[in-house]
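Re: export button greyed out
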Amino acid sequence: MKTVSISPNGTEYKLPTEAESANELKELKKITAEQRKFGRKIVAVQGMGFVGCVMAAVVADAVDEKGEPLYFVHGQQRASLRSFWKVPVINRGIPPVNSSDAEVPKIFHRTVVEKKTLRATWLNYAYKVADIVVVDIQLDATKPTFGDASQGYCDMSAFRDGMKNLGMHISTECLTLVETTVPPGTCENVVKPLIEEEFTKRGIDIAKNPPLIAHSYERVMPGAKYVSSIRDFWRVFSGVNEKSKYVAREFLNNILDTEKYPLTELDNTNASELSKVMENSYRATNIALTLEWAKCAEKIGVDIHKVRAAIRKRKGTHDNLLRPSLGVGGYCLTKDPVLANWAMGAIFNIDDKLKIAINSVDINDTMPLHTIDLIKEEYPELKDVKIAVLGVSYLENLGDTRHSPSETLIKFINEFWAIVKTHDPYVEFWAEMENVPIDKSLSDALKDADVVIFAVGHTQYLELDPDEVVAMTGKKPLIIDCSNFLNDEKIKAYLRAGCKVKGVGKGHIGKLVLGAG
Amino acid sequence: MKTVSISPNGTEYKLPTEAESANELKELKKITAEQRKFGRKIVAVQGMGFVGCVMAAVVADAVDEKGEPLYFVHGQQRASLRSFWKVPVINRGIPPVNSSDAEVPKIFHRTVVEKKTLRATWLNYAYKVADIVVVDIQLDATKPTFGDASQGYCDMSAFRDGMKNLGMHISTECLTLVETTVPPGTCENVVKPLIEEEFTKRGIDIAKNPPLIAHSYERVMPGAKYVSSIRDFWRVFSGVNEKSKYVAREFLNNILDTEKYPLTELDNTNASELSKVMENSYRATNIALTLEWAKCAEKIGVDIHKVRAAIRKRKGTHDNLLRPSLGVGGYCLTKDPVLANWAMGAIFNIDDKLKIAINSVDINDTMPLHTIDLIKEEYPELKDVKIAVLGVSYLENLGDTRHSPSETLIKFINEFWAIVKTHDPYVEFWAEMENVPIDKSLSDALKDADVVIFAVGHTQYLELDPDEVVAMTGKKPLIIDCSNFLNDEKIKAYLRAGCKVKGVGKGHIGKLVLGAG
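Workaround output, generated via the alternate export path:
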């Protein structure tokens, strides 16, 4: 049996032994007692993932009017092979996530090393002593059939285990604050009964001690303002009863800049949970709409990007219209409509479900196939065609590859036996596509390419000189611009160099730019 | 044969005789010659409908830097039974449309009576002398099957006749500026060939004299800023060739406030036409999304209006999210996605059409049935149930009933043999529902009502005192709030009076407001 958890940079961390766990327990007791003496409340954050670890640091960084820390935070991470490494890494003051936000390493160093208000642990004891548990367990949607999100579902077993575990350990006065994006109905219909069941087993009278459960969702934006997007932004919350709402309100007011961004309190946790997934479904639908119109626009000689700019002039009513692109990636827009649609059936037995949002996911998920269609217009047989994909992350100037549309693109390109090379300055190792190497050198990736796909708008790609690109291929490659990355000057340069240029939402760009194909 | 055109206020106008037409021709020639002497260009506006007549006045009101009128405008209206009355009415300086914008009667008086730069006529001679023809012919979508907009189509025969008529009369230097919302592709594929055909018949060499055709769409907002929404707002345009673009650009710069709202020029008329219908499809889709979520929200005890407010806090990315309501009405959002979808197939042979937008129209069109479902929860048999519908227009504080969702609501209520009474302070006569009388007195409409539907948010309705409403019914009616018109205080008052209150996107409101059903 494996007993080593390996961090992304390859360092090996042995899983803790029983003796180490016994020592850790002593340490936790000691630290908790010390922190109580300072008058600080104890917060446990469940799950040191993308959101949880930074949320833990934000809580640990919160201070009162005198500048004194308000909370001590146990960052709880189970001793799993996959994630245990995060515990020793965090405890050295190092964030367990990569971010372009310089504040991320700073806030970890500040809270772990300087203030000593954040510490990671693998023990459930963290829950036992917590005044508040912030739940940041990952919860995914499964889409068993590509392009049919209506079949999507949410496997809640790990989440349920997590809630059960809380019920076994937390005190009756502890607030469970769910921050995970969950299917609407989860707090009332999953978290509450599970904790009540465990309370009852522990002999707690849940009529007298109804569990305190609240929901508040983050609106994290990966990138340069990652920490700030958690702390300095609008928050929505609710609770399963008045006391839960009260405790959640006080906590959120303490850790967030709610003077500038006042809290929005909704009637119940169903509303707060629904708000989050509707928010992202709104975005997903906006993109799907533009994608459908982009495909039609291409066929009638219209540049949808210019049309979009014209429409967005109507500020306040039309400026949310999103940009067509290779497709939609990331963790939220690809799954949240599915969580919602699934919950309506599975939790509430509602037949009449969220078709617009679900169809939007299908359109977005299958959109990378459209880029392949653009290539096929020039290379009807893709076999052995050399295709360079520039960018594999899901967002510009970031290395986040979760559900990246480049993943779908390359999977399908491979099915046609084309030969793919990839490049991404922000991605060294592509976790979701382990067998697809990322060329470190752009010229290696471009060498001999018949087709160059500008898949992601990394600044480096936007600044590329067309003649250099063409020279690196050693050919006159077909250029595919997936989201209006090339301006008219660059397009003209590619055309002068003998390339064909095509664009998502633009079609055959030569016609638009030069008035001729 | 009828020879009388009757205006909305009942005045009868005889259709012109041949002698009158001969006199009118002399008059037109005289006026045109006079106006040419002033150095003014001659503009003909084709169609004195909702947009055309105000557009004509805006053009006639345009002045140069010295305050001198730039254009003389012939408002062309065919001598039809339905619309001829507009000619004599306009020529008295009276607008042929009702509007809550005080500027509408003013601009007609100013241009017709004071400046004498606008005059209506029924003769095609207006086109013969025009430097620019602005096309404002009405063009509708037909949806043969309720709830299946994918079958929708556009009967262009009248529009084609209009274009043919222009081709028979206009000079080769005349710009045809299409302002009508048309299926994308219309200028290139319908207007251009029709005018070319007529030019050729007239012996004009279209290779040397290609017709000048442009498209620019209005973004009229009915209501208090009607004139301003034409003149002082962002405009998009394009033309079928460079000269068309040049003439259109100069004209639009002259008549609109393009210093504050610079023009957006697109590559071709397909783009400009697509932009308009996409703009409205975006709105239609946003509403459809909220409607779907509203129905689910009701079933899980969530007030979607509060959720919407929470989501819209994210300015710039989420604040376009629209409001759930009885349904979607008006002239644009109900038809523009259909025009677009139909054009993709009928004009461009594109199979892969605009499903999101079309499904949205279906959701929006059928939404009034949801209000009936809310009633049926209380009255499973609607037969003989007395239902008062407050508001039959499609927008608050306006009398515009075009494609009003109240129309759909009442048609279906009637199918169930319920008894409907209607009230609307802005509507005296319901043109689309001639057999449905509008009660002038609110108390008459409410008397004996078992159900009171707040269908439209006219200010008068928002200010109604719940106890008075209940007293006027003489019962304890079921109150249906179609779009968050009742605040919590009003809802509590209705509940205290013994009424049940339900809301679109809220469900059984008592539960939310009082914590009990």
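Chain A is about 40% helix and 15% strand. The button fix ships in the next patch.
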